[in-house]
Design a protein that fits this description.
The structure is a homodimer.
Chain A: H1 8-18, H2 36-53, E1 58-61, H3 66-73, E2 78-81, H4 82-94, H5 112-126, E3 141-145, H6 151-162, E4 166-170, H7 173-178, E5 192-196, H8 199-209, H9 218-235, E6 239-241, H10 247-257
Parallel strand pairs in A: 1-2, 3-4, 3-5, 5-6
Enzyme class (chains A, B): transferase
Pfam family, one (chains A, B): Kinase-PPPase
Catalytic activity (chains A, B): [pyruvate, water dikinase]-phosphate + phosphate + H(+) = [pyruvate, water dikinase] + diphosphate; [pyruvate, water dikinase] + ADP = [pyruvate, water dikinase]-phosphate + AMP + H(+)
Amino acid sequence: MVSDGTGITAETFAHSILAQFEMRFRQIRVPFVDSVDKAYETAQRINEMYRTENVRPIIFSTLVDARANEILRNCQGVILDMFQTFIEPLEQELNLKSMHAIGRVHQNADSEAYKNRIEAVNFSLAHDDGQSNKNLQSADVILVGVSRSGKTPTTLYLAMQYGVKAANYPLIPDDFEREKLPSTLDQYKDKIFGLSIDPQRLSEIRNERRPGSKYASLENCRYEVNEAEAMMRREGIKWLSSTHKSIEEIATTILQEIKLERDVY
Amino acid sequence: MVSDGTGITAETFAHSILAQFEMRFRQIRVPFVDSVDKAYETAQRINEMYRTENVRPIIFSTLVDARANEILRNCQGVILDMFQTFIEPLEQELNLKSMHAIGRVHQNADSEAYKNRIEAVNFSLAHDDGQSNKNLQSADVILVGVSRSGKTPTTLYLAMQYGVKAANYPLIPDDFEREKLPSTLDQYKDKIFGLSIDPQRLSEIRNERRPGSKYASLENCRYEVNEAEAMMRREGIKWLSSTHKSIEEIATTILQEIKLERDVY
């Protein structure tokens, strides 16, 4: 995976293609190939591998610079070149020349969008686990759910990836006894989204933290999950089960459900 | 950006290509297109846009299913199809048929690798800002630097993206007076990596949090940064300046520098 930047795009590219093959691949990321010299060095490294292992390395390239690209294309690997492949047809369609400029793939650290992401991460940390009610009105979404249902990683992912300010509140036995959501949340009903989880799985997760505790017992987990789901139904809160979902899938669903999808950039 | 999964790959793909054009694009993510019906619906939506706006939509597709793909290819957008384009040459090279299986792009939430990532996120949260010395021996990396130099978002990114267990410790005036690293860290010297930052930028960041404080003053920021850099030099700690770097760039550099790059998956 050869890139002139961090290699994150090349890596996403490679993983998505390779996942389609029932085969294990040794993966090497070569980031910051941002000069002709480094391109030569990389090409030599690839040729060397080909000689010693007698298997053609598969190269996922996102190099933008034409000269560096030319050098890499002449190595003995199989080149899958994302830019070359798609930029030319797009230039024709748009009737516009691309910039072939290095390092434009990711947000610049000085950009507004980047600053928003970092601000969102700080917001999510400050509003983790119901820690603070301050500035809750500026939250884009407030996740609720029982302890260990996946709220924290999801809020951090939403913040880091999308600049979404996400707070999260635990639903605890106190709330179930009162049969009410934490009162702070009353005025933010339209921002709330719920996570639930299979009690069996919850019990496993909690047992890793506090083995043998009442908190982790299957019985207690069943009680909490039942109560939380009943409350969310009663309050008309949209929710999903996090049991078999990755944070990427949970985050994507939340963005769709609460219409946070930002379609203009 | 049309995907049968979360659309994260399609989005990364689109952003990296579009960033090469000096033009603003309205971007719409259409995730979970995992049936023939949804493919029809998406194709119709694209055709409708073409009719109303009279501009051919550009479609970044990562659909895997052959029938869904066929439907999309017959719409009136410009189709840039990552799978179709790269999977066939790879099948030939590997002499192996791909699975054309939906939803294989991202880690399954039940996989070991995914669990490691979530465990790493929990580790990073528990070891944020020197909060805990417990299990520090299982950290992959320990970031040090003055308050607000970018340690927290970086540790979270390393955890979330790479499953790297990253702790972080602030360097504070007490440490500068003693002219020593926090003593807890003595035995983990080889895991330490430093972040520094331009004092001017640091002062701006701190002023957003505590306007007009001594903590945020340029004079104090200069003092802390000078002392921290002197300490890192004295202790032989590798470090970088986070001033103009994104968390993606910082994380990539750290992985390279401390040889955390995992090249076998």
